[in-house]
Amino acid sequence: MRRLSVIAGALLLLLLLSVVSAVSFGAHAIDVGRAIDDPNSLDGVILWSARAPRVLLAALAGGALAVVGVAFQALLRNPLADPYVLGVSGGAAAGATLAIVAGASAFTLLGAAVVPAAAMVGGLFATLLVYAIARAGGEVSGTTIVLAGVIVNATFASLITFIKTLVSASKAQELLFWLMGFLDVPSTAQLIACAIWVALGITMIVLDAGRLNILSLGREPAQHLGINVRNLERRVFFAASAVTGAIVSLTGLIGFVGLIVPHAARRMLGPDHRSLIPAAMLLGASTLVFCDLAARVAFHYLGTEPPVGAVTALVGGPLFLVILYRTRVRGAV
Fold first, then answer.
1. On the chain, which terminus has fewer CB atoms closer than 10 Å, C or N?
2. Is 87 left (phi over 0), alpha (psi -120 to 50) or beta?
3. What tens digit of pLDDT does each residue of 221-256 get?
């Protein structure tokens, strides 16, 4: 219990450090104290109008994607599962793209809620499609699910590319930059709508944390212990799709956070999902905030800023290969 408290405190401190660093540094250095004392000053405008909303979105997205990664890895009992690899993010991106092209991305509370809803439907459809493809070959295994996810991702990527050819050049460029995983400054309505979707989805996952522990024993043992596995899978998949859709609708495709962060949290705390989920949420939030800070600061002198999705892919890609190698060596896949 003491170890859990120490780790929780360390993760909270890390999140606080990441947020303070992210709002303090950027293209223009600001005095945070002056910004707080005088919101109408230049420092105050930069802090409250630009950096704070973006940092909040980064923390929200990182924490949410990490929780979704924990949920998928628990349900599939596969360490390689995450919304990006399984094609859920691709389906959510396709749904959000259709909604944006249709004009549903207005900066109002209603409009900001429609895009996450469309993305959620796309993510849920992608999840069902992955399972259908994996089951077509007979017994469902970790390998078939990952391969099915790759196929679904490629299919939705082709659909998005096709959509981009039907819109204007400026709209296509906007979609391209968004799909690369760029954290723009969200409106208050967008941030509120996204936070509501994420809170509802994560609450459902947290309530099933104890059941996910039992499910880790396998489907049949879990059923013998009184768990309705089918209903559990439906609830968690629906919740995970809702969370993924809400995040993708604002950030585009940000990969590997939902894959790498759960592994790091599991190494610190073990497999108990009652403590693993909140730990992954805190660590995921810190990770994406730091990655976004790196994207803003590291390339400032070149006069450019890469999407944060490029940073997470650059870091997460090699780590994914390491995890894949270790998993295959242990015979888990």
1. N
2. left
3. 888 888 888 889 889 888 888 898 888 888 888 888
